[in-house]
Amino acid sequence: NAGVTQTPKFRILKIGQSMTLQCTQDMNHNYMYWYRQDPGMGLKLIYYSVGAGITDKGEVPNGYNVSRSTTEDFPLRLELAAPSQTSVYFCASARQGQDSNQPQHFGDGTRLSIL
Amino acid sequence: AQKVTQAQTEISVVEKEDVTLDCVYETRDTTYYLFWYKQPPSGELVFLIRRNSFDEQNEISGRYSWNFQKSTSSFNFTITASQVVDSAVYFCALSERNSGYSTLTFGKGTMLLVSP
């Protein structure tokens, strides 16, 4: 059981380039999330999705886009990379009911540097 | 808005010492959940515990214990007889329902360094 898989693990981009961070989960979870982690700042929510076709903004969505065409996949798109987007990105998933708050399962992260 | 405060940025202890990591939260929700996650030097995030707002019983799991006090809005984490392998960043997190959907707000984390 692979859980949450993120690719790539590391990437260096030039300012203005675009890229997609991939995230896939094999647990049939309805919820998926993208976070960024900056040193000493904890994790901040970028976007989340409650099911295929449904996405919503988190705390820090500017400069990012997401889509959720399938239950399994939740890619994060950076259109015009900026140095401020240098961070470690985590994808997570969870099975949530109407009143439940199940623990989120995290991928191993993608370390992204914008130079 | 909800907020999670982990006032201790970094704690250093010697092996076998007991250590408590503090977590204070703010919320207007009457129903909420609290979590602790561990992030070892390898970088992955490991779930440790979940507690809902109606369950104020303390919990013990081996050398780990958690003290939830609604009156002081705190959910503290104690490691007894710490070991070098406990060295990690520990995050406290609070669930939030935005328009009925579950999201998490994380504290900034406490880095625990356990030396031999």
Describe the fold and architecture.
The complex is a heterodimer of chains A (115) and B (116). Chain A is built from no helices and eleven strands. Chain A is 0% helix and 49% strand. Chain A is mainly beta and 115 residues long. In chain A, strand 4 and strand 5 (43-51) form a beta hairpin. Chain B contains no helices and twelve strands. In chain B, strands 2, 5, 6, 10, 11 and 12 form a six-stranded mixed beta sheet that branches. A four-stranded antiparallel beta sheet of chain B has the order 3-9-8-7, with no helix packed on it. A two-stranded antiparallel sheet of chain B has the order 1-4. In chain B, a hairpin with a 6-residue loop joins strand 5 (33-39) and strand 6 (46-52). The mean pLDDT of chain B is 91. The interface between A and B is medium-sized, with 29 and 25 residues.
Secondary-structure element sequence of chain A? EEEEEEEEEEE
Strand residues, percent of chain B: over 45%
Integer-rounded radius of gyration of chain A: 13 Å
- What share of the residues of chain A does DSSP label as strand, in percent? over 45%
What is the strand and helix layout of this fold?
The complex is a heterodimer of chains A (115) and B (116).
Chain A: E1 4-7, E2 10-13, E3 19-25, E4 31-37, E5 43-51, E6 54-57, E7 64-66, E8 76-78, E9 87-94, E10 105-106, E11 110-114
Parallel strand pairs in A: 2-11
Antiparallel strand pairs in A: 1-3, 3-8, 4-5, 4-9, 5-6, 7-8, 9-10, 9-11
Chain B: E1 3-5, E2 10-14, E3 19-21, E4 24-26, E5 33-39, E6 46-52, E7 59-61, E8 64-69, E9 74-79, E10 88-98, E11 101-106, E12 110-115
Parallel strand pairs in B: 2-12
Antiparallel strand pairs in B: 1-4, 3-9, 5-6, 5-10, 7-8, 8-9, 10-11, 10-12
